[in-house]
Design goal:
- The chain is mainly α.
- It has one domain.
- The chain is built from 16 helices and 2 strands.
- A two-stranded antiparallel ribbon has the order 1-2.
- Strand 1 and strand 2 form a beta hairpin.
- The mean pLDDT is 86.
C-alpha cells in the first residue's frame, strides 16, 4: 500500500487506517520492548536498594540528552530519505543514507568525548549525595561508550522504517531487550544459589551492580546495531548500496539539509533534556527516596506513552512519503488520523496506568516508601496522557513534513516556561507530587498547543 502513495493511487479511509496500523504495530512493539529494557534495568538495580536506584536515576536524564542528540542527527537524514522514496528517487535516498553514516559517526565521536570528560563531575553538578556519586559516574561513563553504536542503531532503523520496513527494526528491538536481560542477569548480581522447583542451582555472576547494568545495556546496543546496519546497507530492496550503478559522490547539500532539519530538533532536545536535568536538580534535595521514585515513575510511565511514539514513527513515514510524492490530500488525512489514534490509545493506557500504578512501581522496587510515592505521582500523570499523545504525534507529523523549527519552539516554551516554573514553585510545599502535577499541567497545555498548530497550518496549507 505504500506504493500507492508514490504512484498516485486513490486510497480509501479503511486502507489508510489499515496502513497506519500495519506500520504502527511493529513500531509500538519495538518502542515498548525498548522501554522494557530500561524497566528491567531499573527493576534489577532497584532490588539492590534505594541508593543504587537513585544513582541511575540521577544521571538518567543526561543519558537521554546525548541519546536524543544522536536521534536528531539521524532524523535529519531519514526525513530526506523519506521524501526521496516518496518521489521514487531511490538512488538519492541511498546517497542520503551514506552521508548519514559518515556525518553521524563523526558527530557521535564528538559526543562520546564530551561524555567521558564530564562523567565524574556530572553527579556533583546535579546535586547528588556523596553516597551515590561514584556509582552514578560509573553508570554514565560506561553507558557513554554506547553512543556510536546507538547512532548506527538509530540511523539504520530509521532508514529501514521510512522505506516501509518496520519488521526488522522491531524484531531487533525485541532482541535488544532479551539480550539486556541476559547480560544484566550475570553482570549486576554476584554468584548466587537459586532454588528452582526444589533444585538448587549455582548461578555465576560478576556482582558489579550499577556498573553491570550499564555494561549490559552497552553490549545489547552493540549486538543490535551491527545487524541493523547490515540489513540497511546490504539487504534492503530500496536502500542496499549494491543497487547503485554510479560512483558515490559527496554532496554537502545533503548534510546542510540534514542540519536544517536536525538542528532545531537537536536544540530542542538539548534544552528539553536540559530541562529534565533542571527538574532532577529540583528533585535531588528531596532525598534519595524522591530521586528513586521520580526515576521509577518516569520508567513506569514510559510503558504507557511508548505506543504514542510508535504511532508517531508511522506518522513520520506516511507524511514524509506523502510530501515527497506531492500528495497533500494524503498528507492531511494521515496527519489527523495518526493524531486521533495516538490520543485514543494513550487515553486507554492512562486508565491502565491509574488502575495498576501500585503494581507497576512494585515491580521496580521493594522499598515501601518509594512504592507509595511512585504510585501517587503516576496517578497524577495519568490524566495528561491523551494530550501528551497529541504533542508526540503532531510533532512527528511536522517532522515528516520537514517543519521542525516552530514545533521545537512550542516544546521548549512549554517545558521551560510552564513545567519548570510551576515545578519549582510547588516542590517546596508539595514535594515530588507537586513536581509531577506541574508535569501533567504542562503536557496537557503542550498537547492543546500542537493541536491548534496542526489545525491552523493544515488549513492554511503551510504544512
Amino acid at each position: 500500500m505504500l506504493a500507492k502513495i508514490r504512484e498516485g493511487g486513490v486510497m480509501s479511509r479503511s486502507e489508510k487506517l489499515n496502513l497506519i496500523i500495519q506500520l504502527s504495530i511493529p513500531s509500538i512493539l519495538a518502542q515498548v520492548t525498548t522501554v522494557l529494557m530500561f524497566y528491567i534495568d531499573a527493576g534489577m538495580v532497584g532490588s539492590l536498594g534505594a541508593e543504587p536506584a537513585a544513582a541511575i536515576g540521577l544521571v538518567e536524564p543526561a543519558t537521554w540528552l546525548f541519546g536524543s542528540l544522536v536521534s536528531a542527527a539521524s532524523m535529519g537524514f531519514s526525513v530526506q530519505a523519506a521524501h526521496f522514496i516518496g518521489a521514487n528517487d531511490f538512488e538519492k535516498a541511498r546517497a542520503v543514507m551514506r552521508h548519514g553514516y559518515a556525518f553521524g559517526l563523526s558527530f557521535s565521536m564528538i559526543l562520546l568525548l564530551i561524555t567521558v570528560l564530564i562523567a565524574f563531575r556530572l553527579p556533583v553538578w546535579l546535586g547528588g549525595g556523596v553516597d551515590i556519586q561514584h556509582d552514578a559516574s560509573m553508570y554514565f561513563l560506561i553507558f557513554s561508550f554506547a553512543i556510536p553504536f546507538h547512532l548506527i542503531e538509530v540511523l539504520s532503523a530509521s532508514m529501514l522504517k521510512v522505506s516501509g520496513d518496520m519488521r526488522r527494526p522491531s524484531l531487533m528491538a525485541i532482541l535488544m531487550c532479551v539480550l539486556d536481560v541476559i547480560f544484566n542477569f550475570f553482570f549486576i548480581f554476584p554468584t548466587r544459589t537459586l532454588t528452582i522447583a526444589g533444585w538448587q542451582l549455582m548461578v555465576p555472576g560478576c556482582g558489579w551492580g550499577v556498573a553491570g547494568a550499564a555494561l549490559g545495556t552497552l553490549l545489547a546496543f552493540v549486538s543490535v546495531a551491527l545487524p541493523l546496519a547490515y540489513f540497511a546497507i546490504f539487504r534492503s530492496s530500496i536502500l542496499a548500496w549494491k543497487l547503485d550503478v554510479e560512483r558515490f559522490v559527496w554532496r554537502w547539500q545533503y548534510v546542510w539539509n540534514a542540519v536544517k532539519i536536525g538542528a532545531p530538533m537537536a536544540l530542542q532536545y538539548l534544552l528539553m533534556n536540559g530541562a529534565q536535568l533542571v527538574s532532577t536538580m529540583i528533585v535531588a534535595p528531596l532525598g534519595n527516596v524522591a530521586i528513586a521514585a521520580h526515576s521509577f515513575g518516569i520508567t513506569a510511565e514510559s510503558l504507557c506513552y511508548m505506543p504514542g511514539y510508535g504511532i508517531s514513527e508511522a506518522a513520520t513515514t506516511l507524511v514524509g512519503q506523502s510530501v515527497g510524492a506531492d500528495r497533500r490530500d494524503l498528507h492531511r488525512s494521515f496527519a489527523w488520523m495518526t493524531v486521533l489514534m495516538g490520543m485514543g490509545v494513550m487515553a486507554f493506557m492512562g486508565i491502565i496506568m491509574y488502575i495498576f500504578a501500585p503494581e507497576m512501581i512494585g515491580l521496580l522496587t521493594p522499598v515501601p516508601e518509594i512504592q507509595a510515592l511512585g504510585t501517587s505521582i503516576l496517578r497524577i500523570e495519568a490524566f495528561a496522557e491523551p494530550f501528551f499523545a497529541a504533542a508526540i504525534v503532531a510533532y512527528s507529523v511536522c517532522v515528516g513534513a520537514g517543519d521542525t523549527l516552530k514545533p521545537s519552539f512550542i516544546n521548549l516554551g512549554s517545558m521551560w516556561l510552564v513545567r519548570l516554573t510551576l515545578a519549582y514553585a510547588l516542590a517546596s510545599h508539595y514535594g515530588l507530587r507537586g513536581v509531577w502535577f506541574a508535569m501533567a499541567v504542562e503536557l496537557s497545555f503542550r498537547g492543546l498547543m500542537f493541536i491548534f498548530y496542526l489545525y491552523r497550518h493544515l488549513r492554511q496549507k503551510k504544512l
